[in-house]
């Protein structure tokens, strides 16, 4: 079999890029008045306008051929059928079973249904006030202690669904082993009213266990009750015995399974803070929205399939246009944590350099994902997007309607979003820039000297994702869209998107360096590390 980069379709795409290089995106609109309509797709309440890209019909056709030739439809089927796609850990990849019917996966559906029932009962007990803390008071604050996938998903969704939250319960998230995170959070809380959710699939993650132990000490110390853990701690984990050893009651442990990856887990009991904050009904709407996107993904041909098209556009820019990063810019205050969430999803999944058999790949893989909400980013890094030397494809995300009554704000927000994608595409010519300086009163010579600084090359690609309102259903669909995009890219690049061995070395080294800092072991490291350890010791042990 040809390697990916030697395949005929890859070669044809390389030629396509050469042809399109000299055509502007704006020019493509002039050539084809139907372009916007043709390159807009909708599914599960999400509309994707991908017309402002360096593509034409032959490009789309070649890209979808690439998807076919790399076996994307078969891989989608394999995931939904429960094949062990995570080959390095010998695991199935079944986050879709957390939210869909998956009739052919009765075993998973049965355990998921029972976990959802346990969550519903618990949420009901907290909301109704039946669950009381050790001193008999109601729970008013929930602190999720977790990191990575056990933090970013529930934190992002809780913020996104702020308008759906019950005013009687506040949620807080502690992830960093930096004690400032926990102590700043606890400063404002009353232990008698606080519930901790220790979220850790493995229950071995050092940051989470350190924070959980300190939280437990704070609780027991302040309530003067060594047994308070029973009423104030629950856990979400697949390591039930380990959580019990920590002191959490077996009844208070919600399950996780090895067929759900951490960064794909917000749909499981890892989403407990979401259900507590927004109610079980809204949590189920989130699942239902994702399930609608799953159905679209599994049933739709590549050329009409939103996640597949988004994945192919990413491949197009990463592999054929040399883009090394991808910006995600939600024009939505409530999506303030969204880019950070997608960063883990994408970069922990596709930040790999060997294929599924362990051979080093000869093409680039997952890009650097970055971004911030609009309009804030416009007054910061958009300068680089418009005039910098990097090629950065952008996803703009925006809703038609807002949750707040300030109609004028939303129209301004929406106008800013459209202005940015249009400015990236059109740019500003040298002549326009010069004329603007002349209108400002500069003479022609000075205006010509200044014009290069104001001109903008334009021809910079972007997609716009649009939905009616940021609801639980829409959010579920939006997250699932990105999950599937990342998966499709991994299939095209032939990498395993579901392991994360690259994070292990740092953990191992930390286990060696920490005892050296505290003086419990010697410091047999490299010269730089030894010197830094010595400085720490000099500061703390003199
Ligand atoms: O270190 C990376 C990672 O394994 C992520 O993949 C995961 O989401 C996070 O740590 C937390 O893991 P756990 O839920 O087991 O504490």
UniProtKB/TrEMBL annotation:
First-listed, main subcellular location of the protein, grouped into a coarse class: cytoplasm
Catalytic activity: alpha-D-glucose 6-phosphate = beta-D-fructose 6-phosphate
SUPFAM superfamilies tied to this protein: SIS domain (SSF53697)
Record-listed E.C. numbers: 5.3.1.9
Isomerase keyword on record: yes
Tagged with keyword Cytoplasm: yes
Annotated CDD domains: SIS_PGI_1 (cd05015), SIS_PGI_2 (cd05016)
Record-annotated active site: 348 (proton donor), 379, 507
Localization: Cytoplasm
Entry keywords, A to Z: Cytoplasm, Gluconeogenesis, Glycolysis, Isomerase
TM annotation in the entry: none
GO molecular function: carbohydrate derivative binding; glucose-6-phosphate isomerase activity; monosaccharide binding
Associated pathway: Carbohydrate degradation; glycolysis; D-glyceraldehyde 3-phosphate and glycerone phosphate from D-glucose: step 2/4; Carbohydrate biosynthesis; gluconeogenesis
Source organism, top-level taxon: Bacteria
GO annotation (BP), single: glycolytic process
A Gene Ontology cellular-component term: cytosol
InterPro entries linked: G6P_Isomerase, G6P_Isomerase_C, Phosphoglucose_isomerase_CS, SIS_dom_sf, SIS_PGI_1, SIS_PGI_2
Family: Belongs to the GPI family.
Function: Catalyzes the reversible isomerization of glucose-6-phosphate to fructose-6-phosphate.
Protein name per its UniProtKB record: Glucose-6-phosphate isomerase
Organism this protein belongs to: Simiduia agarivorans (strain DSM 21679 / JCM 13881 / BCRC 17597 / SA1)
Lineage of producing organism: Bacteria, Pseudomonadati, Pseudomonadota, Gammaproteobacteria, Cellvibrionales
Gene that encodes it: pgi
């Amino acid at each position: 079999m040809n390697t990916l980069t030697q395949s005929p379709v890859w070669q044809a795409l390389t030629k396509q890029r050469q042809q399109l290089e000299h055509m502007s995106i704006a020019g493509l609109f002039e050539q084809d008045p139907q372009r916007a309509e043709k390159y807009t797709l909708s599914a599960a309440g999400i509309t994707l306008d991908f017309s402002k890209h360096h593509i034409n019909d032959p490009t789309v056709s070649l890209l979808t051929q690439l998807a076919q030739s790399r076996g994307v439809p078969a891989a989608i089927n394999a995931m939904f059928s429960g094949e062990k796609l995570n080959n390095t850990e010998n695991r199935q990849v079944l986050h879709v079973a957390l939210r869909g019917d998956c009739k052919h996966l009765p075993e998973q559906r049965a355990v998921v249904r029972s976990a959802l029932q346990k969550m519903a009962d618990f949420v009901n007990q907290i909301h109704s006030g039946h669950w009381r803390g050790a001193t008999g008071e109601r729970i008013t604050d929930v602190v999720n202690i977790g990191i990575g996938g056990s933090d970013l998903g529930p934190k992002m969704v809780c913020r996104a669904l702020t308008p759906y939250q019950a005013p009687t319960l506040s949620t807080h998230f502690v992830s960093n082993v930096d004690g400032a995170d926990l102590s700043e959070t606890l400063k404002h809380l009353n232990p008698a009213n606080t519930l901790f959710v220790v979220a850790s699939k493995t229950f071995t993650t050092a940051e989470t266990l350190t924070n959980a132990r300190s939280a437990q000490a704070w609780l027991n110390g302040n309530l003067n009750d060594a047994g308070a853990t029973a009423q104030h701690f629950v856990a979400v984990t697949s390591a039930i015995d380990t959580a019990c050893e920590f002191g959490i009651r077996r009844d208070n442990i919600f399950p996780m399974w090895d067929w759900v990856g951490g960064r794909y887990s917000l749909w499981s009991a890892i989403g407990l803070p979401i259900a507590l904050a927004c109610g079980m009904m809204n949590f189920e709407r989130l699942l239902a929205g994702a399930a609608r996107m799953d159905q679209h993904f599994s049933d739709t041909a590549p050329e009409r399939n939103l996640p597949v098209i988004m994945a192919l556009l990413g491949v197009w820019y990463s592999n054929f246009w040399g883009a090394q990063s991808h910006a995600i810019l939600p024009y939505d205050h409530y999506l303030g944590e969204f880019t950070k969430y997608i960063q883990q999803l994408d970069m922990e999944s596709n930040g790999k350099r060997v294929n599924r058999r362990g051979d080093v790949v000869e093409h680039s893989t997952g890009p650097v994902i970055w971004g911030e909400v609009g309009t804030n980013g416009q007054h910061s890094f958009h300068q680089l997007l418009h005039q910098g030397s990097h090629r950065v494809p952008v996803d703009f995300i925006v809703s038609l309607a807002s949750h707040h009554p300030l109609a004028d704000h939303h129209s301004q927000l929406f106008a800013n979003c459209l202005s940015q994608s249009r400015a990236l595409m059109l740019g500003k010519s040298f002549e326009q820039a010069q004329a603007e300086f002349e209108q400002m009163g500069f003479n022609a010579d000075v205006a010509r000297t200044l014009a290069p600084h104001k001109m903008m090359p334009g021809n910079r690609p972007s997609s716009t994702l649009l939905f009616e309102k940021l609801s639980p259903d829409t959010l579920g669909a939006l997250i699932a869209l990105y999950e599937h995009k990342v998966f499709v890219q991994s299939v095209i690049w032939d990498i395993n998107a579901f392991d994360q061995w690259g994070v292990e070395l740092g953990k191992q080294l930390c286990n060696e360096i920490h005892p050296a800092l505290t003086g419990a072991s010697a410091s047999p490291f490299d010269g730089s590390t030894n010197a830094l350890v010595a400085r720490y010791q000099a500061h703390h042990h003199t």
